[in-house]
Design brief:
By secondary structure, the chain is mostly beta strands. The protein has one helix at about 75-80, and strands spanning about 1-10, 15, 20-35, 40-45, 50, 55-70. It has one domain (about 1-75): Jelly Rolls. The chain contains one helix and six strands, in the order ββββββα. Strands 1, 2, 3, 4, 5 and 6 form a six-stranded antiparallel sheet that branches.
């Protein structure tokens, strides 16, 4: 398992990507638009989102935000700075 804490500024965007690990995101503060597959989801403080293994997803930070991401199994690519 891998857990990350992220502080992201308004306007930050993450390109669509996939990874083998399943992902759960808990948005502690702020507002983001998360695209999973073809579906857009707007999340606000207290929201939780799950992403399946090898499911394409991306993020657009709409307000300064803080969130926790949990991945299973371990995301070695995060430590190596590589993302598919």
């Amino acid at each position: 398992m891998t857990m990350t804490f992220v502080k992201a500024r308004k306007g930050t965007k993450g390109k669509p990507h996939i990874h083998e690990a399943e992902q759960i995101m808990y948005l502690m503060e702020g507002k983001v638009k998360f695209q999973v597959g073809e579906e857009d989801r707007v999340l606000s403080s207290g929201s939780v989102l799950g992403v399946g293994s090898n499911e394409s997803h991306s993020i657009n930070v709409l307000e300064d935000s803080e969130y926790i991401e949990v991945f299973h199994p371990l995301r070695l690519d995060l430590f190596l700075g590589y993302m598919k």
